[in-house]
Structures are given as structure tokens and as C-alpha cells.
């Protein structure tokens, strides 16, 4: 079969079709987050589109700063697979980030795709655990007891500077634009943890493309605080159809919470990089920011 298509940056009007392509598999992001990531990096998400305009594939490699880029959301519409569309998307995506260190999370059966394209560095200390679950959420099994002197506050613009400072301290670079856009998505609820007036974590929940509660980012110094934030965030989206969350395998508290809720593991992903391992304190990462677009 000959397919005539072009590879070009995602435009806002493509988003419904991109979601149709993505819903054949499960992706955790929300509709609005696609718009936010293309504001952060206008050429960071690309699509393959037929001459008719129909979108048949998508791939993201978002530039975060001069050194770091992160990839994901890679999917080709069934019926158009095995015709090199995925390869074209990957080649252009990899070119986009120039010589930055490009990270991504890979399914075990897809390792060869990336190993063949120069992703020679593998994280061996941990993997990414993806939870993608449809069904009711039993938050009663989660603790509601905050440690002494810790309070949780509902998001307000007044807390943005505290959140930026905390986020930068944990991740190592400034992400204020995307942090702000994420907190301001219309379905997002954010909680900010303070101990004696100092920000010690923050967490968000939103409704994603399959109407589940997508928890993330959820970062905190003390995982007991993380557990309470997780519970209270989920309680703010009672109409959610399930849970979408990505954790780090060595964060035992985060994964223990999900286990107690009897939510099964969806997939275990391997972290690859084109150049070098990125190091953060994974004890503080209860849930990823956005598993397809951000390293943590
Ligand atoms: C992975 C996917 C995007 C590939 O798209 P495609 O248009 O069929 O890919 P191409 O025909 O251009 O092939 C590109 C490479 O992928 C490999 N590939 C394609 N389908 C594959 C599959 N199901 N399993 C493993 N490798 C696969 C090809 O062998 C080729 O590798 P090579 O060039 O290194 O030899 C597509 O199969 C898909 O959407 N799958 C579901 C979502 C998914 O798994 N995404 C990747 C998450 S890590």
C-alpha cells in the first residue's frame, strides 16, 4: 500500500483526531495538556497526516531546556502500521531535539526500536510502573493522617512561587511555565503541602482522555504526606471513571497505596536515554508529572 502523508507539528485542531489515534492504546494525558505541551515547545509534538488531513500517527519529543528533552505518546493508527510511518515520526522527533539528552519510557517488547536508534543508556535502578484502571476507586484504605505541623492547601495563584521553588529544587531546572499551565487546566485540582510555612510538596489530579483521574505530578518530601494528598485529590474527582498514574518502582509507599486499592499494574516501562542517566531523588516522586512528556 502506498500512503501519501506529511509529518508536521501538531495543531490545536488536530487534537480530537490525535486522541482517537491514542485511544487505541492507553495514554494517560488529558486533552488540555496536549495544548500546554505545544505551548512549552511548539514543535515538540508532531503528527503524520494524510493529504485529506486525517491524522494517522503522533509522536512527542518535548524540549525542556538546553540539555534535556523527553519523548513519548508514540502511536500509529491501526491499519497504517508497518508502512514506515512510525519510523518517519521517530526520525523527525529525534532530529528535533538536536544534541540534547533525550529520555523516554519504553515497553519491553519495543526495546529494539529505540536501541536501533541510539538510545544506548538504560536506567537499571528502577522502572516506571503504569496504572491505567477503569473501575471504582476505594480511597477508604488510604491514610488521612498528616504528620505534625503539615497542612494541605487548595491551589491559589499565591502559592505558585512556592510550587516553582519546590519543583526546581526536586527536578533541577526551572519549569515554571508548564507547572503553571498544568495547575490551571480547567479540570485540574492542586493541593500544596506546607510545613511551618515552607512548601514540602504539591500534587495534582485531572480528568484524562479516557475520563479517569490522572494523578500527577505528586511530589513530596514525606511520603506519608503523599498518601494523604493522593487520597484527598481522588476525593475531589468523584465522577472519575478510574485511575491513570505512573510511579517509580522503588517508591514503595506510592505503589503500596495503589496495591491496597486493589488496582492492578498495567505496564512496567524501561527508562532509556540517548546520552546519560538523569538523577533525581525518586523517594520524593509519588507520581510522574506526565509520563509521555516529562522525565519525572
Ligand atoms: C510502535 C508503533 C508506533 C510503530 O509504528 P509503525 O508505523 O508500525 O512503525 P514502522 O513500520 O515505521 O516501524 C518502525 C520500527 O518499529 C518496529 N515495530 C513496528 N511495530 C512493532 C511492534 N508491534 N513491536 C515491536 N516493534 C515494532 C519495526 O520493526 C521498526 O523497527 P526498525 O526500523 O528498527 O527495524 C505502532 O506499532 C503502534 O502504534 N503501536 C501501539 C502503541 C505503542 O506500542 N507505542 C510505542 C510505545 S513504546
UniProtKB/TrEMBL annotation:
GO molecular function terms attached to this record: acyltransferase activity, transferring groups other than amino-acyl groups
Signal sequence, renumbered to the chain: none
Protein name: N-acetyltransferase domain-containing protein
InterPro entries, sorted: Acyl/Acetyltrans_Enzymes (IPR052729), Acyl_CoA_acyltransferase (IPR016181), GNAT_dom (IPR000182), YitH/HolE_GNAT (IPR041496)
Name of one Pfam family that matches: Acetyltransf_18
Domain N-acetyltransferase: 5-149
Biological source species: Larinioides sclopetarius
